[in-house]
Specification:
Elements (H helix, E strand, L loop, with lengths): L6 H14 L2 H34 L1 H4 L2 E3 L3 E2 H45 L5
Antiparallel strand pairs: 1-2
Helix pairs in contact: 1-4, 2-4
């Protein structure tokens, strides 16, 4: 077995490295991180608040809101699901507007290079 890479594979590999080092790709990563990191921190803090209140503020979390079975803890727990779906929806909107167009341009650029060097695979 040989570990040498064919010239076309090396050329494609070099192109991927060039794209990864490009300003457009760096901007794409910065844009992605600009959404993901703050949302991750916000969700973690929200979840930590829920856990901490459940552990140390039992009287508050046990406060009845509606009827005999709906209390603050249950509402907070259900809001965890709501916030998860809200973040997913916000990410989909954000990605459609700010991430996908740039990623599609980069993908098309790399795809053109792949066609010059032969079939993918």
């Amino acid at each position: 077995m040989s570990t040498d890479t064919p010239a076309s594979a090396a050329g494609t590999s070099n192109r991927y490295v060039a794209v990864q080092e490009s300003a457009e790709f760096a901007g794409l990563r910065k844009t992605l991180r600009g959404f993901i990191f703050p949302m991750t921190v916000a969700f973690f803090l929200w979840y930590a608040l829920y856990v901490i209140l459940s552990a140390y503020a039992r009287d508050f979390m046990g406060t009845r809101l509606f009827g005999s079975n709906i209390n603050v803890a249950l509402v907070f727990g259900l809001l965890q699901f709501v916030s998860t779906f809200l973040i997913a929806w916000l990410y989909a909107r954000y990605a459609n507007r700010r991430i996908d167009p740039v990623a599609d341009r980069i993908r098309a650029e790399v795809g053109e290079v792949n066609h010059e060097h032969g079939p993918r695979g």
